[in-house]
Design brief:
Elements: E1 2-14, E2 28-40, H1 52-63, E3 69-70, H2 84-100, H3 105-109, E4 113-119, E5 125-131
Parallel strand pairs: 1-3
Antiparallel strand pairs: 1-2, 2-4, 4-5
Helix pairs in contact: 1-2
The structure holds the ligand Nc1nc2c(c(=O)[nH]1)N=C([C@H](O)[C@H](O)COP(=O)(O)OP(=O)(O)OP(=O)(O)O)CN2.
Length: about 130
């Protein structure tokens, strides 16, 4: 299996429901480094999985509606705790959709799996890996 990873970052604000979150029940900010790993069993005629520039552009387009936002106020996250894990799932699903509808070119059509990893600090990160 081949993989190609591109990296970006987002700055967000959010709060959590649930006593387990302690002070994080209050509105707070976070900067996440976002790694998107695209996996495919084969390369194209140019020996590419996906063009890196295209992968970066599509990741940016998926992150733009989240970046510099208070996620508590975004309808797409209504009723959700936007934990690091949940944001991985959300971004993975958006990237999988981009692969399916051709936004990542022919290379994207060959992608079978995507792993999204979010680093919230130097001591904690989470990931979600799923099919396209
Ligand atoms: N599994 C997860 N746990 C926590 C997440 C998360 O996204 N997934 N997020 C947070 C907070 O948003 C923040 O990142 C840390 O808040 P904090 O209150 O400092 O939580 P800690 O568990 O790191 O520290 P303690 O104060 O010792 O509880 C929290 N958890």
């Amino acid at each position: 299996m081949f993989s190609l990873t591109v990296v970006d970052h987002i700055m967000i604000a959010h709060s959590f429901r649930g006593e387990a979150f302690g002070p994080a029940q209050r509105l707070h900010g976070a900067t996440f480094v976002v790694e998107a790993e695209f996996c495919a069993p084969k390369l194209d005629d140019l020996h590419l999985l996906i063009d890196i520039g295209l992968a970066k552009d599509v990741l940016r387009a998926v992150l733009a509606p989240i970046d510099y936002r208070n996620l508590d106020a975004e309808p797409v996250f209504a009723g959700k705790n936007t934990t690091t894990e949940y944001l991985c799932l959300h971004i993975q699903q958006e990237l999988a959709s981009a692969c399916r509808d051709g936004r990542l070119g022919d290379g994207g059509k060959a992608v079978t799996g995507i792993k999204v990893l979010l680093r919230e600090s130097h001591i904690a990160w989470a990931a979600f890996e799923g099919p396209v």
